[in-house]
Amino acid sequence: MSMKASLSANAKLLFAILLVGVGVALTYTVFEQAISLSLDLIWNNLLHTNTHRLLILPLIFGFTLIFFWLRHTFDRSDKSEGLGSTSRPTLANFGKILLVGYFSLLAGASLGPEAILVPASMLLGAYIGNSLFARKQETSFLAGMGIVALFTAFFHSYIIGILAIFLVAKQAKSKPTLSLLLFGAVTAGVTYLVLGVIDSKEAVTLPSYSWHINLVTILYSALLIASGYLLIRLLAVLDTLFGRVYILAQKKSWWQHAIIAAIGLTTLYLLGGPLVQFTGNHSIVPLFEQSATLGMLGIIWVIVIKVVAMAWSKAIGYSGGMIFPTIFLAAALVALLQLYVPSFNAIYGLIAVLIGAFIANSKTGVLA
């Protein structure tokens, strides 16, 4: 290939990356805002479910029926899960993923948006690749750039976007090349700039923290690593147990399956209270604020119900991911520890729990 042709190809790829960065930033922001505003409007402002708890029944049952009807209506081959696969890259499938995921989270599933937005972002990248390039290589590459853009958006962090490049390389079972690093850096940069322009908000809200570290932090972090490991092993056991219920529910009609799912979720939310509802990303700061009132037994109860709700939501068939709810669990364990060690550094505690969680996940795969 001549130098002129090579420059032209790289310029075209940079243009495609610009489209991916802008498209994913907008997709993330619109989807997150749609979920946040809908939950706030319907669950909180309209029905005040935090105080009128029984009103969660019509919400969970109603939106769960809509979700399962949509999932039943759309061909299951259009459903994407994980980092490794996407639907056929069309705008229709892109819309289906987001629509089905929206009603799953609106129904109150104790799952995160990442398992919805990951395939949607990959599909968007692949769609742009298909539209601009003839070769499959560029299409796959741009699908990977969708992941880089999404991780940048999730944490509003250029650094996290750069780290996501290595995740993309691992998923593709290849070593990070110079071109991958350069184009990935551009993708993360474009996404980060767009997020700033549209004043988007990060997916996870954390309490204030510092990076100061001491011996106490190291010792208690080891305890939290073990706690995170055990929680995910428990989650895996519950996922297997509820998976048997899913097998039985699949043999019934879609609406009967929906009712079974809604009964379980409603029961857990009535038992656990508002803190255990939804993804948990916006409940982290309230959890720390209420920790003294909840006390040891109250926080343990929240942790137990949250684990069960996560396992039920995933196993019974709701759409969503386990990573962000796991961050809430990490925050709850840190809040529990801070009841007795108030000076303990929250950010290191969160990292420690997640390390233990990911070690357990390497054996169970339950967070996938």
Please describe what this structure looks like.
The chain has 368 residues and is mainly α. 74% of the residues lie in helices and 0% in strands. Helix 5 packs across helix 7. The protein is globular and about 65 Å long. The two termini are 41 Å apart.
Q: Tell me the Rg in angstroms.
A: 21 Å
Q: What is the average per-residue confidence, as pLDDT, rounded to a whole number?
A: 83
Q: Write down the secondary-structure element order.
A: HHHHHHHHHHHH
- How many DSSP-defined strands? 0
Q: What's the helix count?
A: 12
Helical content, roughly? Answer: over 70%
Taking pLDDT < 50 over at least 5 consecutive residues as the criterion, the unreliable ranges are 77-84
Oligomeric nature of the chains = single chain
Share in β-strands: under 5%
**C-alpha end-to-end distance:** 41 Å
What structural category do the secondary elements indicate? Answer: mainly alpha
- Shape descriptor reads globular
* Largest sheet properties: none
Outline the secondary-structure elements.
Blueprint: H1 3-46, H2 56-73, H3 91-106, H4 114-132, H5 136-155, H6 158-171, H7 178-197, H8 215-250, H9 254-272, H10 284-316, H11 323-338, H12 346-364
Helix pairs in contact: 1-3, 1-4, 1-5, 1-7, 2-3, 2-9, 3-4, 4-5, 5-6, 5-7, 6-7, 8-10, 8-11, 8-12, 9-10, 10-11, 11-12
